[in-house]
Structures are given as C-alpha cells and as structure tokens.
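Batch manifest, entry 17 of 40.
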Amino acid sequence: MNAAMQTVGPKRKVHFPFSAEHDKLKEGKTFKDIEKWFPEAASFIDQQVKPSRDTNENLWAVTDLVI
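Output type: structure tokens
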C-alpha cells in the first residue's frame, strides 16, 4: 500500500487504518488518505476487513502482538 500511495499521493509512510470503534474509522487521517487516492480499497477496508476493536476483535488482538 505504501508504494502505491507514494506514486500517486502523499510522500510519507501510510499505516493501515485502525480504530477502537468502527464508527470512528473514517475520521482518521490514514483512512482519509487511502479513501482519497484509492476509494475502492478504502471501501473494502471499511466493509470487509473492519479494522476496529468492536467489529474485528481477532485482528485487533494481532496488532497487540510483540515480535
């Protein structure tokens, strides 16, 4: 995602969007950047992946792993 974003969008590293509550996912800067440049990817993240503690607890748990 970073390489794609840097070719068409901001020249900074973009992190995968997460939020504690799904209702607030779209408010984050990272999500807004992805939505601006790749609206279909943003829609997929929002509707399928649902990277929020209240909608996808297993994915949220993975982000807490210390490697």
